[in-house]
Amino acid sequence: MNSIILTIYPILFFVFAFYGAKVNLRGEFAPEHLSLEQTKFIQAVACVGIMIHHLAQEVTTYGMFKKGIVTGFCYIGFLFTALFFFFSGYGLIYSVYNKPDYLRTFLRKRLPTVYIPFLMINTLSVLLNRFVYGLKESAAETLDDMFGITLINSNGWFIIEIIFLYIIFYALFNLIKNKDIALVLLCIATVLLIIYSFSLGHDPAYDKSSWFKGEWWYNSTITFAFGMLYARFRDSWDGFFKKYYKVLIIIFAILSVLSGLASSYAVDHLGYYKDIVFSLGNNDATKTLLIQSVSCLICTTFIVLLNMKITIGNPAVKFISGISLELFLIHGYFINRVFDKVRMNDFLRFLCVIVCSIVATALISIPVKKLVKKTIEFLTWRHVKNDTLESKRYEMKQANRQVLVKAFTVFFIVVAIFAVFYLSVGRFIILKEEHRAEMETLKEAKVGDEVYFARFETDLKKSGNERLTWIVVKKEDGKVCLLSKEGLYGSYYDQQYAKVTWKESDLRELINTDEALSMFSKYERPDVMEIDGDFITLLTAEEAEEYFYDDAGRKLMITPYAEACGVNTNRYVKNPQWDQKGYDSSWWWLRGTNEEGEMTAPIVDYDGEILLDTKYVNKPNGAIRPVIWVKLPDE
Hints:
13 strands
């Protein structure tokens, strides 16, 4: 029943796109074909399609649970994004070939148009995360999130990539007088950008995305080059399409369906989710990229053909077209933050996210667009200086400019002073005070108490590293033994299927690397004691037996970060109905002996039972539960 009810959203999407559309029958073609208004309307439809795509991924767990027609949207989000790239490339080349002095103010107009909404929405997200959801991070991390150095907004990748393409476009067409040569080089640069992004592999499952990592950076970018070529040779393209329209529309309709099915198959059975070294044609990720790139080109061509006959437009599409960029950036926050943990049926989740996203975007877009307008005026004021018809406006802009210069100067000075102070002094003051409080707590703690010590990435919904909770398992002679309350991450015991001792194991080396030890601040590190050559170790089977009264006490919860990194858990999927035991636990590694190499290593299983010889050492993704000894301060 739930799947049937969800079908209303694909139906409403179709109505939204085509209600009020004008169809040119017989031999007539739409005079508005690829006009500025039509391209904005098509992008508005694509934006809503992307929103439904992300919602479908959420409620179906990326297609794992089939929920009728809406499940298909899990696999076509990249096709909607391809339309954004196509029209971006098309608009650039059409304008540079047909508008005199287009490049003169290009960057000053285009960059604020895309970057300021990105900056403002990032800033709003940071404020909400801090003051509504209580997520704490350093000043440096905050600035990185705001300005897009780290992508707190999972959809922000598009803004970064399109800015890179704008800058490359501007540089090439300014440096090279022959526009056709510049166009060829820009197409080559686009392909190289795809290859570079692809070679970096799939992005880890963190709360923030990395620049140019992940298939979302490259599986639809090819249409940017297609859009540029279409604009340059539009007369030839249109002439060919009109001449063979009836045949082509049928061919591309069929090819769109087939390529869409091929893409969904590739994602499910091949995919990007592997560590890859770029080698064209030799791995599943490459095949998936090629299939999806071809699908983008086919489906985009089909949309272009449709627009030659169908002119879309209605009040709803027109409204969304005015806020599509902001809506593209905002809706993910409602999916992944606001309604992520709220229990509701799928139909209501769709409704709440869509309505709230549109309402919030409508409100936010008003000040955002005003700021964009003022910024562009500020950046381009010199171009009206000698225009007598604009003399009064120029005087006003000059006065506004002085006010803005002062305001921006004061703002950046304050931010710079705060950032320098925090990075040079403030952060260390906070860490020092945090360490003092930790040591006071450890002095008074008893065996069985839970205490804070160190920081590590644990929660994907929170920015920065979180404070770690430890269990005091032993206390003696001015030192205390701490056991991590949760499984922090996962690994093999040893990657080789061979007999190995604890001293020789990869796991021992892993948990004592500089990266692992970075969980301790400069003040904590001197208090972490080195025991048998290790700063971090694991419990032995004997210690696991001694420190817990029963099996239930040894059951291990793992952090969201650990689960996202692939640590084994009894929860096979995100849907709680599969959590049949009623808790989210993992089996975890214990420390073996150094007496004789073994093919297996001791573990604690999901139910808390200690098993000595059931897990082979090369079994991946067993949870790691660190143990440390901390030196207590003198009385």
